[in-house]
Amino acid sequence: xxxxxxxxxSCNGGMPGNPLQPLTCNLGTLASGASATIxxxxxxxxxxxxxxxxxxxxxxxxxxxxxxxxxxxxxxxTMVQTNAxxxxxxxxxxxxxxxxxxxxxxxxxxxxGPSDAMNVIVTDNLPDSKHVIYQSDTGGCTKVANxxxxxxxxxEPGSSKNxxxxxxxxxxxxxxxxxxxxxxxxTDPSIANNTSTxxxxxxxxx
Length: 206
Hints:
Distance between the termini: 63 Å
Strand content: over 45%
Helix content: under 10%
CATH class of the largest domain: Mainly Beta
Shape: rod-shaped
Number of helices: 0
Largest sheet: 6 strands, mixed
Oligomer: single chain
CATH superfamily of the largest domain: ntegrin, alpha v. Chain A, domain 4
């Protein structure tokens, strides 16, 4: 629970999910025909699965006899819709390389939230290379032809995972472009930051 604000009276904070410790508010006296409101803001657990139904129940009581108790209880049901804004950045240790030297790339994936990002996959279409070495936070990388696929597992909100790739590029001088993409089984509300391209230049002598 993030906050609660009664229009009158006061509240004692409870423990979300614990029916033995509910939020309790004393609204004082309500005149006939009058009303009072309580605004409650709650934050969904980032690991709550997609489709989870959250139930919130409120009960009104009074010191005085109520001739109709049938309308003293109200329930709201909310379905969890997960989404996680993943962002990927690809960097190199320098922008210029000599022919037949190794290009060192670092790929960083960050989850901007609000939910856990599940089954995070990074796909990197490597340049035509003589030799490739890759080191991942998770170790879950496979290479088929020039495509490197890394399973980063679950990335929690506000956290990041990195891995390094060392590539000895074939060919001689010129620009070498390399693009990495990130995806997840969790809905991403903004895919514009799911791709990162790094261009380096191979130049100079041998």
